[in-house]
Amino acid sequence: MLGNKQGCMRMEGVPDYVLFDLETTGTSWERDEVVEISAIKVRGGKPVEEFSQLVNPGMAISYAASEVNGITDEMVADCPCFDIVLEEFLRFAGDDVLVGHNIKMFDLKFIQKSAQRYFGKMVGNDYVDTLPLSKIYLPELGGHTLGDLACHYGISTDGAHRALNDCRMNQQVFECLKREMENPSEAAKKVERCPRCGNLLKRRSGRYGEFWGCMSYPDCKYTRNIPSNGVWME
């Protein structure tokens, strides 16, 4: 849904949602463009509908990106531009919570940039990012990429790095993470979390010394000092 402000990150296992993924011409949301968007509509934890479309980005796809996702300039030459496809995706998503892996720092950056460019609005759907969730509830894992999580749960990674295949993989991962949230491990219980929004706290340094800062910033501005005398201050 389009509006005057973007949605907020939620740290919960919602039953109904739209899980989405992008493939792009490169890794910079400021300079690169979308070449594929896919999504899965989920109701009660079960997939009920899929959406997938290649996009003509209006620029060359980098060699590095094509090596990863297998999408070439020739494949997208006759495809619709993203203004048309984004409108179709937003219609598909409706008011649902959006879910994806690393979407706060990557996919949603592309979506919001394009929504402002084409419609002069922001995408207001709240969202759940499975990357911070995995770091909270599976802190013992050596890595938290989507592939790492799929391997951890025994989910097939065949066809990875094409948007729809990644959506199918991530949807299964999210359902597994929801079970972790219902019954967290002892290691997960010890992770430093924000008391306001539930996201991870990151140790940072500022003018007055070290402090814990919420990783949902700027949505959540919670901080907690780390004083040398051992007395906690908020």
The CATH superfamily name of the largest domain is: Ribonuclease H-like superfamily/Ribonuclease H
Domain unit count: 2
CATH topology of the largest domain: Nucleotidyltransferase, domain 5
N- and C-termini, Cα separation: 35 Å
Number of helices: 8
Largest sheet: 5 strands, mixed
Shape: globular
Low-confidence stretches: 230-234
In order across it, which strands form the biggest sheet? 4-3-2-5-7
List the quaternary state of the chains. Answer: single chain
**How does the helix and strand content classify structurally?**
alpha+beta
Number of strands: 10
Question: What's the CATH architecture name of the largest domain?
Answer: 2-Layer Sandwich
Characterize the structure shown.
The protein is an alpha+beta fold and 234 residues long. The protein has two domains: 2-186, Nucleotidyltransferase, domain 5; 192-234. Helix content is 34%, strand content 22%. The chain has eight helices and ten strands. It has a five-stranded mixed beta sheet with strand order 4-3-2-5-7, with helices on both faces. Helix 5 packs parallel to helix 7 (163-182). The longest helix is centred in the C-terminal third of the chain and has 20 residues, at 163-182. The two termini are 35 Å apart.
